[in-house]
Amino acid sequence: MLKFAKTRFKRGATDAEREKLKQELFTFKKTVEHGFPHRPSAVAFDPEMKLLAIGTRSGLIKIYGQPGVEFSARHSVESQIIRLFFLPNEGRLISLLDDNSLHLWEVNIKDGKSVLEEVKDFSLEGRLKKISVCCLPSTQEHLFLGTEGGNIYLLDVKTFQLLDHIIYQDVVMQNVPDDYKANPGAVEAIAEHPTDSNKLLIGYNRGLIVLWDNKSCNAEQTYVAPQQLESLAWHRSGDQFMSAHADGSYCIWNSADASKPAQNATIPYGPFPCKAINKIQWLTTKSEPFIAFSGGMPRASYGDRHCVTVMQGKTHVVFDFTSRVVDFFTIGDTDRECEWDDPHTLVVLAEEELVLMDLQSEGWPTFRMPYLSSLHSSAITCSSVQTNVPDQLWDKIVAAGDTQMAANHTSREWPIEGGSVLSETPASKDLLLTGHEDGSVRFWDVSTPALRLLYKLDTKAYFSTHDDSEVVAAADAGEEDWPPFRKVGTFDPYSDDPRLGVQKIMLCPWSGTLVLAGTAGQVVLMDMNTEEAEVDLEVTTVNIVNDRDGFVWKGHDSLTPRSTTVKVPAGFQAKHLVQCTPPASVTALANHSENQLLAIGTSHGFSIFDYLQKKVILTKCTLNPNDLSATGESSMSRRKSLKKSLRESIRRLRKRGSRSTPSKKEAKPRVEAVPTTDLDAPEKGEEAAAPVQRLVEARQPDGDMASMVRCLVFAETFLREGASAGLSLWAGTNSGGIFVYSVTMPEADKREEEDVVAELGKEVQLKHRAPVVALSVMDGSNVPLPDPMDVKHERADAPNMNGTHTVVVASEEQFKVFTLPRLKEKTKYKLTAKEGVRVRKVGFTQYRSRSDEKHVEQHLSLVTNVGDFLVFSVPQLRRQVQHSCMRKEDINGITSTIFTRDGEAFFLLSPSELQRCTLSARVAVEPLCMLELPEGARPAPPPEPEPEPEVTAEAEGEGEKTEEEKPASVPETLPSVPAIVVETSPPNPVEDETEEAPAEEAVAPEKPESEHEAEGVLADIQKTLENTSILDSTADESKDSVGDITLDDIKDYIASKEGPDEDSADKPAVDEGADN
């Protein structure tokens, strides 16, 4: 007993130190959301502070300023945002939701940075009070709320309450023709007079327009439009205004003449029926005015187009988008007092992208996006992160991208430039590469919170697709000159050929070699070139199933490479094409740049290709002809609860103890046999612990899926006893098979003449046959083998080749560490059996202490099928932390997860957004920004009336009296609470099992169990806890302290169950309380 206590105390001290160190190493934080907000529904702009706000259908608000300035917040209810309004120069925002509620937000300083916070809210109740339109006047004192019932309410912005003043529809209708008095419809538009803030244009749904003087509460003019009204816009002078209608027409009115429009209605794209013009703006300049509107396309021919038209004099452009236009507005540098509007930028928010047009430059080109880019311009099929990219390659990529984008973008500075960035310039240049369904690869700068597109690479140019003839035919026919469409934006959901999809990406930052693998078995090797070139692509065919007679491929054909020379711009240019046969999708890829070897894996096997000599070194087919038709599905038993496991454990001990009464000498070893948390130790007593693990049945091969190659790794390590280290290739399959090949390289001076030789060194089959998700070879210091090119360029330390190497095998169900070269099992962790989850993605990461830069630990980071992030130490395989990150239903997010070397992770939050998060306490890329408000920008809140002294004193007296009276009633219930808790909490886990115990097992009161047997029970409970899934990031520490169960509790419990003594019989009230 004394020995056990010493061990327990020593381990407790060690655990406390480890917990402190964990806080220095690990954390979990979602840092920033890269990309474009999913399903946007509203937009607003602050012309004073240069801020842009976007609201979504899920109630999320995002505010953007200059690159790196970003604030976001979410409404407490998930409801669509209908409108957003900035209070200019105040750092405040009003949102209108579709549940008819209004919310006031402020950008405030918190913890040294600016954050977006909700400060007030207000709701209008009733169907007739459903808000249909809002207008914020230039005074910013109140917000006009037009409703479905036709009334207009005024919301005081300071108090966020309705004013008593209401513009009733009945009052407005007094001078209106009788035809419109009956039902003018909902308020459709409200527009403030540009020179007189007391006057408003009020437009009703059926076409009635009223010029209302809010000061005198009088309708000055009444205009009757011939069509249903959609939008209103004033001329800068205030002498005229424009109305847009549901038939695709617009009218110009003189504000002083209500009898008829100043000009006949204009249908820009008539005479055939057109769609409604949803919004219109009339903007003046020193030359010709701008007219901009959305919609209005001919229904029959272009009714499916999403357009914004801009006209200025003879210049007429229809900006054509591939997704629905949500809203648009213009940006200008003039204020209300200026004579002209002079817009310089048109901003269009579409459902899938944001596009800005430069209205000052010739041709109205678009702006290059420094953030808010459409990640999903084509659907993302794969992604890869390259951290700490060398300056030489980075500069080449940036230069190629600048040249590529200069032709289609303006050179003007980004006009949304509010706020200031607090974070320092990043020391590391980090690159995100995304592969897409259309065969393109995009290079993104993820060094900062602002995701910026650097360069786009397109592989489609190297192949002849079945759409080429259609493109040529369309070019010959030409498009109609009217309407004058111009395609803008990058979002293009349609792929020319799904076979072009990029499935795997590998980039060597030192050699500049880029390897892209596709859906149809194509693997393109590319090099960086700073000059434009003409490429004549060489092709090598690799037949992976050449030793399987009778195999018939029933899938798609391979892509056809272009037979002619391809002219490609500066950037990455193809130098060789490897075509796998059968043309199945490439599932794994490994590149050894130093030796110029490439390993390719598909669902049928794998191959090694020497791209220096352009030769196939090896092909290995993993198909099993005996199991091709077999199908299987692994099954697991349901999760066992901790309470049930404890019951079973104690019941087994009681049955065992009743059959043979142990002596003190026999009981003593059981005290010493308490399981250790060190998973390196052999698992003794595994048979006894088996019931607390889930039963995971061995998998059956599932046809072609069983042969799929899941991972490929090149490693220089030991495969034979007594032999020196050499290059090897490790391949893991979907059926739990591992193939290890020894790769013999010729001498350096004979590398181009002599062949590389690959021989099978070892073949391993995991018993549980779960898919091998990842492999990593560790050196003698338990550090993953670095890339030889990183060692050569002094970015990584040379591996320790003196100590024993190990290989970490991560399957979907468990992790194992084997020593090399004998492949002897060292440690393992049965994740599925213990936790009831499966591994989906794995990353081998290093975690550096935030306070001590020299302290670095190597760990295995993973995401499970239920969306949890877990970190395990290597090679001990002890769980360090566990965090819930995604919903288990979020399949796209889970399967898209990628880990960086330094403990960050990226995953798809939506089709258009990447969520960035960190598991490292040291590494985090998040927006740190500040919004500085001018002095006195926000109006002072209204003073609250001070209470009268008499009332305050009386209230205080009542409060003191209440506090004095409270204790009188409390003691009636207090004494019984601790009695129940203290007496009954230890037996609770097995309280329900008393009736199941056999009668003959009862022990007489005069023969109590020995102290050693009680200790044995405690030991077994600890064993149960150790082998039971406790979903807690501190599960390892929870094993060492069995809740509130102590040795005294166990002895009391055994005594109480084996026979009631006199003392226990005297306390029926407590036992009854426990049953309750």
Automatic annotation (TrEMBL):
One of its GO terms (molecular function) is myosin II binding. Its main location: cytoplasm. Residues 806-918 form the Lethal giant larvae (Lgl)-like C-terminal domain. Keywords: Cytoplasm, Exocytosis, Membrane, Phosphoprotein, Repeat, WD repeat. Pfam families: Lgl_C (PF08596), LLGL (PF08366). The keyword Phosphoprotein applies. Residues 945-957, 990-999 have a biased composition (Acidic residues). SMART domains: WD40 (SM00320). Residues 266-365 form the Lethal giant larvae homologue domain. It is found in: Cytoplasm; Endomembrane system. Belongs to the WD repeat L(2)GL family. This is LLGL1 protein. The gene is LLGL1.
